[in-house]
């Protein structure tokens, strides 16, 4: 082959390392001949599908020959009524990752600066690099965002600041006082993207709902997802809420029909299923308490988390432990790509899944 097709790609994409998702259970079962694999790697909802969402999906099957509503009118209206903002402030995406990419594509030029923390969600770096923008990575504070360092990193080239609250993969969180003090210092021409993928799980009294800050901070964009607490990871639907002008700009780069018809129906339905959400949060709270107690009892250090996952410090290379757990039919998440080679992230599952995971972890460490 005479043509170097890699060299034809944009500079940012040439050097991009693609996102690596959690290992699918069926892949591990196929590789090792296992059955009953437990996946606690991708922060999914262990309850499975909401009954209301399932009914909505079944009701929509007869319309699959038709394109979905490209504007997502009904879901936008449902979100607006549920959370108290205007429907035209919403941008729908094929998961919240899609919305993060839309923001980068719409607002970043080559050479613009993007600020995010060293242990922040990896997609921030991917969308920054793909647009040939410049990443400004600030040091963390106790595995979370150091907002003072982030504020000090702002220059006249800064265009976007990404903040995950709670943060993934560390589970740390920011309170209202410190977050608002930071937002007060950010110039209005710098967009602050507040990624709230795990907000439904947080019970801390000082935690702030980012949607409540939108009127005070017109440069704020709040992103959320239906993939976690709402149990629709396989359908890929997320959204952002922002001021109307930002939403208008994002709609210009959003692909038509980027959210499929079943996802639109399921998301609208699950918003009304309050019992499902309450159960999801209760299962997560109980599971988190189990891991905290068990990890401490067995001498493991971990990062306190308010999400639906907990990250464990093994004090050694985590990959052999990860591989040993795979052999036992338990999938967790190595986070070496976050410069955390000694850590494993464990999603909170059902009680029996959590017990099996702890047994596998203890056995793997004992054998290491």
TrEMBL record:
<comment type="similarity">
    <text>Belongs to the class-II pyridoxal-phosphate-dependent aminotransferase family. Histidinol-phosphate aminotransferase subfamily.</text>
</comment>
<dbReference type="InterPro" id="IPR015421">
    <property type="entry name" value="PyrdxlP-dep_Trfase_major"/>
</dbReference>
<dbReference type="InterPro" id="IPR015424">
    <property type="entry name" value="PyrdxlP-dep_Trfase"/>
</dbReference>
<feature type="domain" description="Aminotransferase class I/classII large">
    <location>
        <begin position="36"/>
        <end position="360"/>
    </location>
</feature>
<protein>
    <recommendedName>
        <fullName>Histidinol-phosphate aminotransferase</fullName>
        <ecNumber>2.6.1.9</ecNumber>
    </recommendedName>
</protein>
<keyword id="KW-0368">Histidine biosynthesis</keyword>
<dbReference type="Pfam" id="PF00155">
    <property type="entry name" value="Aminotran_1_2"/>
</dbReference>
<feature type="modified residue" description="N6-(pyridoxal phosphate)lysine">
    <location>
        <position position="228"/>
    </location>
</feature>
<keyword id="KW-0663">Pyridoxal phosphate</keyword>
<keyword id="KW-0808">Transferase</keyword>
<dbReference type="InterPro" id="IPR005861">
    <property type="entry name" value="HisP_aminotrans"/>
</dbReference>
<dbReference type="GO" id="GO:0030170">
    <property type="term" value="F:pyridoxal phosphate binding"/>
</dbReference>
<dbReference type="InterPro" id="IPR004839">
    <property type="entry name" value="Aminotransferase_I/II_large"/>
</dbReference>
<dbReference type="GO" id="GO:0004400">
    <property type="term" value="F:histidinol-phosphate transaminase activity"/>
</dbReference>
<dbReference type="InterPro" id="IPR001917">
    <property type="entry name" value="Aminotrans_II_pyridoxalP_BS"/>
</dbReference>
<keyword id="KW-0032">Aminotransferase</keyword>
<comment type="subunit">
    <text>Homodimer.</text>
</comment>
<comment type="pathway">
    <text>Amino-acid biosynthesis; L-histidine biosynthesis; L-histidine from 5-phospho-alpha-D-ribose 1-diphosphate: step 7/9.</text>
</comment>
<dbReference type="InterPro" id="IPR050106">
    <property type="entry name" value="HistidinolP_aminotransfase"/>
</dbReference>
<dbReference type="GO" id="GO:0000105">
    <property type="term" value="P:L-histidine biosynthetic process"/>
</dbReference>
<dbReference type="InterPro" id="IPR015422">
    <property type="entry name" value="PyrdxlP-dep_Trfase_small"/>
</dbReference>
<keyword id="KW-0028">Amino-acid biosynthesis</keyword>
């Amino acid at each position: 082959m005479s043509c170097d097709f890699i060299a034809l790609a944009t500079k940012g994409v040439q050097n991009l390392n693609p996102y690596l998702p959690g290992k699918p259970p069926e892949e591990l079962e196929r590789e090792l001949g296992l059955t009953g694999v437990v996946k606690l790697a991708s922060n999914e909802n262990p309850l499975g599908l909401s009954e209301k969402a399932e009914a909505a999906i079944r009701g929509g099957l007869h319309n699959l020959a038709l394109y979905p509503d490209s504007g997502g009118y009904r879901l936008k209206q449902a979100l607006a009524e549920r959370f108290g903002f205007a429907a035209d402030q919403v941008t729908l995406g094929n998961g919240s990752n899609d919305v993060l990419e839309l923001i980068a594509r719409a607002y970043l030029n080559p050479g613009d600066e993007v600020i995010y923390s060293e242990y922040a969600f990896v997609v921030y770096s991917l969308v920054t690099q793909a647009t040939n923008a410049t990443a400004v990575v600030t040091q963390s504070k106790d595995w979370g965002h150091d907002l003072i360092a982030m504020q000090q990193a702002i220059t006249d080239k800064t265009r976007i600041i990404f903040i995950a609250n709670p943060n993934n993969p560390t589970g740390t969180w920011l309170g209202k006082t410190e977050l608002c003090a930071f937002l007060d210092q950010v110039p209005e021409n710098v967009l602050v993207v507040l990624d709230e993928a795990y907000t439904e799980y947080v019970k801390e009294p000082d935690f702030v709902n980012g949607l409540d800050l939108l009127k005070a901070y017109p440069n704020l964009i709040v992103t959320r997802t239906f993939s976690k607490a709402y149990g629709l990871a396989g359908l890929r639907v997320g959204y952002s809420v922002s001021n109307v002008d930002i939403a208008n700009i994002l709609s210009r780069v959003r692909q038509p029909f980027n959210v499929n018809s079943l996802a639109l129906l399921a998301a609208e339905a699950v918003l009304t299923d309050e019992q499902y959400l309450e159960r999801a949060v209760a299962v997560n709270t109980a599971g988190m308490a189990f891991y905290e107690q068990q990890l401490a009892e067995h001498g493991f250090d971990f990062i306190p988390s308010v999400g639906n996952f907990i990250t464990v410090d093994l004090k050694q290379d985590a990959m052999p432990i990860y591989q040993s757990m795979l052999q036992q039919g338990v999938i967790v998440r190595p986070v070496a790509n976050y410069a955390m080679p000694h850590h494993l992230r464990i999603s909170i599952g059902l009680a029996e899944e959590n017990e099996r995971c702890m047994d596998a972890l203890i056995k793997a460490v004992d054998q290491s």
